[in-house]
Each structure stands twice: as C-alpha cells, then as structure tokens.
Amino acid sequence: MPSEHETVGAYALGILDDAEATAFEAHLAGCEWCAQQLDELAGMEPMLAALADLPGSGSTPAIGESLSAKPSPRLVEKLVDEVAEKRAQKRRRGFYMIAAAAALIIAGPLAAVAVGGGSDGGGQVAASPAQSTFRTMSDKKSATDASTHVSATVAMARKDWGTQAVLELKNVKGPLKCSLVLVAKNGQRVTMSSWSVPDWGYGMPDAKTEAAKKPLYIGGAAAFQPNEIDHFEVVTFEGKKLVQVDA
Question: Which residues, in sequence order, are CB contacts of 105 under 8 Å at separation 6+?
Fold first, then answer.
C-alpha cells in the first residue's frame, strides 16, 4: 500500500474509493507538500488519465513533449506509474471506473472531457480539485452572453510555463460538446479543454435536481502568459460561440 504522499495523482483523478479519499484528505489537512502538489495538478487530471492509458511506456515521452503545459518528466513518470497501479488495483477489486478521457488537439493543448452520472441528471460532474482551485484563484473574469444567456467565469493563475485556468460555467443546457478556447493578443487560438454537456445542463437555476443546478468547473492550461491573452471563448464543436470572457 503506497503512503499518502504517493496518492496525490490518484486523488486528483478521483479514482480513490471513499475510504482512501477520506484517509488522504485527513493527511492533506496537515501536509503542505501534498497541498502544493494537488494545486499544481488541478486541471491536469485528464492529461494524466490519457498518459496512464497509453499502450506501453515508449509512447509517454513523445506525448509529454507535445503538450503545451506539462509537469517535469520525472513527475509525469511518477504519476503515470501511480495512476496505472491504482487503476489495476481497482480492476482486480471489481469497482474500477474511468475518471476522465483525454484527446490531444492541434498544437498540443490540454483537452478534458467532463463525464457525469446517470441520464437523470443526478451525477456529480465538477471535479472537486478544480472547484477548490477556482475558489483560491484571485484573478477572475466573468461575462454573460445576452443572446445565449450562458454565464462563464474564468479564473487564471500565472505559471512559469504559461497560464493555469479554471472555468465556471452556468446556465447551459445540452446535449452539447463544448471547448474553452484561449484567444491570444496575436490572434492565435488555443483549445484549453473540452467537455460534454448532458441534457439537463449545468448551473440551471430552475432545474429539478440539485446536481443540475450546480455549475461546471473544469481546468485547462496554455503556454501563453496572462498578459498575452486577449479573451476566452466557450464554443460548441459546431463553432457556435456561447459566451466570450475578456481577459
């Protein structure tokens, strides 16, 4: 059984069972090192999930090098091994669930696919690490589109490698597939993350279930520094802009 220090990546992915998550959270309350590691991993769980699912170890370095925002190679290797082992344990115990899937978009930005519970809208979609990180980030920009009525807040944090972002999305109904796109001041567009919107939607104030009333929180990353960003767009896969948030 690995020590609590070695379960940061598995906790960020949400693949610990209730007992393991409770034990780690008790450890986290008094461990600054784990808290710092969890903060750095917020919004990167889909990338780690994708790396953990790769067939064979030979592919990991190439994909790691293609990402526009990534941790150090040693950290990636450690976390991938950890996640793969945790998933193997859960398969053997019979209750393993896939926490996230990922895809690489042109120029290597981080793409996340949000997954929820059942079709009745009762699933908890927002990842707790992303929501917690959103609450701690002081640089937030918000907007509501007058036509679609979709509301979005983008929280940003400057990193040595670029910008970490967490999106809070409200008043959007599905079914849709959407992306968070960064538009730089030089005109370049970078997809930071992507997800599916279920029928019941996110952040719907008149929804019948509490889960559907809650916003979506999803992380992303890009190589641009905050002062190089012009605005963010939430767009559907068909190209429809749901809301624009100026940086």
Answer: 111, 191, 194
Residues 6+ apart with CB under 8 A from 211: 116, 117, 121, 122, 123, 124, 125, 200
Helices (H), 94-224: 128-136, 210-213
Q: Coil, helix or strand for 71?
A: coil
Token pair for 70? 């990534």
Q: Residue ranges of the alpha helices (H) in 17-175?
A: 18-28, 32-41, 45-52, 60-66, 73-93, 128-136
- How far, in Å, CA of 79 to CA of 95, rounded? 21
- The pLDDT value recorded for residue 107 is 30
- pLDDT tens readout for residues 138-160: 999 999 999 999 999 999 999 99
The CA distance from 195 to 191, in Å, is 11
Peptide bond into 61 cis (omega under 30): no
* High-pLDDT (> 90) share of the chain, %: 43
Task: For 187, list phi and psi in degrees, rounded to 5.
Answer: 95, -10
pLDDT in tens, 47-103: 555 554 444 444 444 444 444 444 455 555 555 566 556 555 554 443 333 333 333
Note the Cα 241 to chain centre separation in Å: 20
Burial class (CB in 10 A: 0-12, 13-18, 19+), 170: buried
C-alpha neighbours within 13 Å on the C-beta side of residue 64: 20
- Bond prior to 175 in cis (omega within 30° of 0): yes
The total number of residues shown for the chain amounts to: 247
- CB burial of residue 143 (10 Å; 0-12, 13-18, 19+): middle
Please state the φ and ψ torsions of residue 141, each to the nearest 5 degrees.
Answer: -125, 135
